[in-house]
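Help wanted!
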Amino acid sequence: MNASTSAPVPPPDRYGVVGHPIAHSKSPFIHSRFAAATRQHMVYERYDIRPEEFEQRLREFFDEGGCGLNVTLPHKEAAARFADRLTPRARLAGAVNTLRRCSDGAIEGDNTDGAGLLADLRRLGVPLAGAHILVLGAGGATRGILAPLLEQGPATVFIANRTAARAEQLAREFAEQAGKHCTLRGGGFEHIPADPADLVLHATSLGLEGKVPEIPRAVFGPATLAYDLAYGTTDTPFTGWAREQGAGRVAQGLGMLVEQAAEAFFLWRGVRPDTESIRHELQA
Ligand code: ATR
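Answered by r_m:
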């Protein structure tokens, strides 16, 4: 045989995103760009998986050598149950958006949503230490970001929710992460302190219906950043409305989406992709 014959190229490492529905996910585009930019030998596909087949299909994916998966609605809690072990931040979030097969064969569940939000807020130049933060919504999205936010040392965090009891419950659950220097409280929209906040984070699912939460106008001031965890190519219902109410700046969650993907990519491949160019591309 010719000594110069090169060794066969191994098949690419397999990754993907699971959700239901999943057709509109931007993750395959984002991760393919990351892989090309960092020269990783991998493929990333989308998997439309119904809740009742979630466990079996994931088992097959990993048994067949799959290396990692992103997980989106409605599977984030199921993924936390599926994982053999959880990182501390995934345990606190009670939800998993990234699964990876570790060298010992175990499937580890992580949650990069909070880290993605923090990275995007850093990009936007929002100081969180000593900040007054209002979080709207007390569902899974809020649970995923609370611990990383509290770690940044804000002065106050008020969680406001239609169902006040859910917000109060979250405030109790995260009291330890808040520590003694942060006042963490929860309540209904009618209990929101009528002062401008430095940061108003929108984490309800109301935008899907084109609606916004009923909160006092006084929370928006010229120095307020109103940030929607949901994203669109232009304003979301919340960011458009917040600007009208007097918020000095608004941002939507496209940046967070790209940053949580970069964090997942880093977990899998050990390299940090550049996020700026792809964010611009998605915005365009
Ligand atoms: P997610 O994982 O997206 O956070 P979720 O856990 O179902 O989804 O939470 C949805 C959030 O949107 C909750 O805060 C919910 O408020 P309730 O806890 O009172 O249900 C909020 N939400 C959904 N529909 C709403 C509506 N019509 N008005 C106000 N808040 C709403």
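OP: Thanks! One thing I noticed: The domain at 3-112+256-279 is CATH 3.40.50.10860 (Rossmann fold).
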